[in-house]
Amino acid sequence: MPVTKIEQAMAKEWFYSFELPDGRRTTTYHADTLNPIHDTRWNMVQTALRHRYGGAYGQRTAVDLACHQGYFAVKLAQAGFHKVRAVDARASHVEDCQLIADVFGLSNLGVLQSDVFDLDQDAMGTSDVVLMLGLLYHLENPVGALRIARSLCRDCCLIETQIVPGMNGYVDYGSYEFVRPLKGSFGIIDETEETHGPEASITGICLVPSLEALHWILRKVGFREVQLLEPPPDAYEQLKYHKRVMVLAGV
């Protein structure tokens, strides 16, 4: 007897706890300890999108960059978005995302394997909503990634990222007689021994922005509106205490 898609999903361990159509939940390989961050992210995404669109998503499109196993792409498709594209560099993530899309019968969700920097932007076109959750702080070229997000974005981009303490003031720039203001800062994080991990950088060199840097760069790459989103009272501790943030960047 053929194994159903639901049984295939239940036979695996996942990063996300998906509630399947029959009421069962997928088993996570972290014993559900990370569920609070996923819940907080989705709460903040939902709140921002409802405020922006009033819950009317039937004509809206979205792309989820570095979708991992497709948790948030699935949520958008289930919320009624007309078309959602989920993009990830890792083949295993794409396979998992496609399995979950099949489990839920989501014909409005398409899955694509690609590094963000290898995307055919002309073929992708633009989407109303671009998600960039948990990606920016794993990149060695975060500015380039934000430029790509802007090129794919027709209305708004939601970015969730770790941040580092900021630096301000002035720096001698070629001469003590010529100084320039700092617009923010980046911290360097070493993931070079973790590139095999499914939640780590694929290059190992990670540049993590300060909040000031993120705001300034978003405007410089072409977003006209930048909002720091408020986490809910029961938010995951890093978002609650602003060790990581979610920002809405609007076109």
Structure report:
This protein is α/β, with parallel strands linked by helices and about 250 residues long. About 30% of the residues lie in helices and about 25% in strands. The strands form four sheets. It has a seven-stranded mixed β-sheet with strand order 5-4-3-6-7-13-12, with helices on both faces. The longest helix has 19 residues, at about 35-55. The radius of gyration is 19 Å and the shape is globular. The protein starts with a helix and ends with a strand. The model has no long low-confidence stretch (mean pLDDT about 95).
Supply the CATH superfamily name: Vaccinia Virus protein VP39
Q: How many structurally independent domains?
A: 1
Strand content: 25-35%
Low-confidence stretches: none
Question: Radius of gyration, Cα only, in angstroms?
Answer: 19 Å
Q: What does the main sheet amount to?
A: 7 strands, mixed
Report the average pLDDT across residues.
96
SSE pattern, N- to C-terminal: HEEHEHEHEHEHEEEEEHEHE
Give a nutshell description of this structure.
It contains 8 helices and 13 strands.
